[in-house]
Amino acid sequence: xxxxxxxxxxxxxxxxxxxxxxxxxxxxxxxxxxxxxxxxxxxxxxxxxxxxxxxxxxxxxxxxxxxxxxxxxxxxxxxxxxxxxxxxxxxxxxxxxxxxxxxxxxxxxxxxxxxxxxxxxxxxxxxxxxxxxxxxxxxxxxxxxxxxxxxxxxxxxxxxxxxxxxxxxxxxxxxxxxxxxxxxxxxxxxxxxxxxxxxxxxxxxxxxxxxxxxxxxxxxxxxxxxxxxxxxxxxxxxxxxxxxxxxxxxxxxxxxxxxxxxxxxxxxxxxxxxxxxxxxxxxxxxxxxxxxxxxxxxxxxxxxxxxxxxxxxxxxxxxxxxxxxxxxxxxxxxxxxxxxxxxxxxxxxxxxxxxxxxxxxxxxxxxxxxxxxxxxxxx
Amino acid sequence: xxxxxxxxxxxxxxxxxxxxxxxxxxxxxxxxxxxxxxxxxxxxxxxxxxxxxxxxxxxxxxxxxxxxxxxxxxxxxxxxxxxxxxxxxxxxxxxxxxxxxxxxxxxxxxxxxxxxxxxxxxxxxxxxxxxxxxxxxxxxxxxxxxxxxxxxxxxxxxxxxxxxxxxxxxxxxxxxxxxxxxxxxxxxxxxxxxxxxxxxxxxxxxxxxxxxxxxxxxxxxxxxxxxxxxxxxxxxxxxxxxxxxxxxxxxxxxxxxxxxxxxxxxxxxxxxxxxxxxxxxxxxxxxxxxxxxxxxxxxxxxxxxxxxxxxxxxxxxxxxxxxxxxxxxxxxxxxxxxxxxxxxxxxxxxxxxxxxxxxxxxxxxxxxxxxxxxxxxxxxxxxxxxxxxxxxxxxxxx
Lengths: 379, 398
Description:
The complex is a heterodimer of chains A (379) and B (398). Chain A is α+β, with helices and mostly antiparallel strands and 379 residues long. Chain A has three domains: 116 residues, Acyl-CoA dehydrogenase/oxidase, N-terminal domain (Butyryl-Coa Dehydrogenase, subunit A, domain 1, Orthogonal Bundle), CATH 1.10.540.10; 103 residues, Butyryl-CoA Dehydrogenase, subunit A, domain 2, CATH 2.40.110.10; 145 residues, Butyryl-CoA Dehydrogenase, subunit A, domain 3. Helix content of chain A is 51%, strand content 16%. Chain A has eleven helices and ten strands. In chain A, the strands form two sheets. In chain A, strands 1, 2, 3, 4, 5, 6, 7 and 8 form an eight-stranded mixed beta sheet that branches. Chain A is globular and about 80 Å long. In chain A, 55% of the residues are buried. Chain B folds into three domains: 93 residues, Butyryl-Coa Dehydrogenase, subunit A, domain 1; 109 residues, Butyryl-CoA Dehydrogenase, subunit A, domain 2; 132 residues, Butyryl-CoA Dehydrogenase, subunit A, domain 3. Helix content of chain B is 44%, strand content 14%. Chain B has eleven helices and eight strands. In chain B, the strands form two sheets. In chain B, strands 1-4-5-8 form a four-stranded mixed beta sheet. In chain B, strands 2-3-7-6 form a four-stranded antiparallel beta sheet, with no helix packed on it. In chain B, a hairpin with a 2-residue loop joins strand 2 and strand 3. Chain B starts with 7 loop residues before the first helix and ends in a 15-residue tail after the last helix. At the A-B interface, helix 7, strand 10, helix 8, helix 9 and helix 11 of A face helix 7, helix 8, helix 9 and helix 11 of B.
């Protein structure tokens, strides 16, 4: 992976921003979030075909652009700004990342070009009833049976799990514990024994699903890396995934700050713009500090990943912990500073507030990642 | 900011700095190592004056200055490297900080050639120490409201008034004073930036006993103090512009060294938490991890400010707000880690422990150099474009 130049990054950012401004308005998001799929296939097709977003982190040998997490995170910032509904997180940042980091060349050849081209959607079926992302939370089991594996378990909170074409399932060998014995399996979403059900979610802009695995039989070709050796891959994928998600959170926080400032410029009470009251100015100033810090934390982690920095897991945990708190803070403040209209369905703050709440829990919450940092500090 | 990102030139510079600092601070200057940090300005003062001179003689002061004025003209990356190595080696609190970090860049930016020739060598060699005459009893956050007067009498300025919160005034040779010299001109056009010698009959220094029980800050009284007419930087009536330029230095590179020193302060807190078992408490682990996160953000925001601060308004204010708040919170966290022991002083009657001293002294971080509230005003008005505070005195009558 190579980092793009500053000029290339500016081009990627500008084109993403302009596409989303035209094609992911509040009205569009509200339309998509009311559908069963949760996003618009035609728009996703254009994102892949015209803009090449899912190709960004895919290696050039497999039909991608071979760019880094820095560029992927930059796109996530812009998508977060628009609370864009798309399968990008699940397909590209999670499942695509498992394949790129752990799969054989033959497997990559089968899946990555299709992901890069936007023809294949995928997701990572990792979490279960606890929603936790540590190894111990993986209770679904696999067992070898001749030339195939049989999977059993109940996955929950699977992002886009109801619709993804391909599921990357994390399961453990019966009797194993902790980080040992984890296996990763590529399972077609419509395989025999797979039962999927979209969950009604507080944040309607990104779908989550239950995925039941009842004696699902897959061939050896479905195994990614080696049986029992999946955790080292998963832990890297999770750090890359939380970095991308943190960038999305930072982008969302940046947008909600701007919306709030715009509102404070136009709303007049007591004969003054409410943005002229110091009690309110100081609150948006604090929002801006958190926005700038969020952007810095997420970009710093993404660049550390691309530079091969040994501190990357710490910096990723930092980005997710900080951005989760900051986004939720900013979205909450936005409702308050909008006053009564901030409480309505019609105005947009609630879309960001709910996305902030959902993404705060997703892939480990701030408390979880701070504890990882404490361990990393030798505490 | 890690070593792996150094260019070959930066790496050579780092090695040179590290070698010199280590040799000196483990050798002839071992007695000043780690001394005189924030809130401990009186520690080993004489030793630190000698240290300042030794640094100057070896070419480690004014390293960013142009070579013609005795500097090394190093890029910002190497200034940062020097701060890092200085902190790592346990370099003492700099008694020449105000001269090197504030006065010199101001004179380089706004001063005359004669002023550069006259004042830069003393700063560089550590032979002339400086203090800052900004705040007054009636001009704190509202700095433009200074009441100290300067009037030209023949070829001298005569200065009358009072400054406050002047750190190291009793040890300084010179003071830069913002004084009202054009009483009929409107606000922001009525001030001058004067350089005044401290050792003269018209200058009286009175220490302020702070809540820490120590006296790093002073009141300075000017009662007919005199300075030659040419000791005005940037010209008479341009004092506000010069003062704001200086504040930009204060909020930019100048405090970076202190912020880099926060790393070692944080490590002391971690060590204390490990030592007394606080690190086993899950809530304390969360707080320590959060402090580490915010410390990284202090650094990242400082880097952003240095890179983009001149083009994006508000970044300097964000930087100041972040580091000041971090330091104050770290002061509280250290006390919390210490638990009941936090209450016990080092020695009777009131000699403070290092943690107590930082805990108390860091209350000033969110006040001086523009309070947190002033920084928030700057962010809201200059970065976010919200309307300015209404000013009753906007017509300049004050």
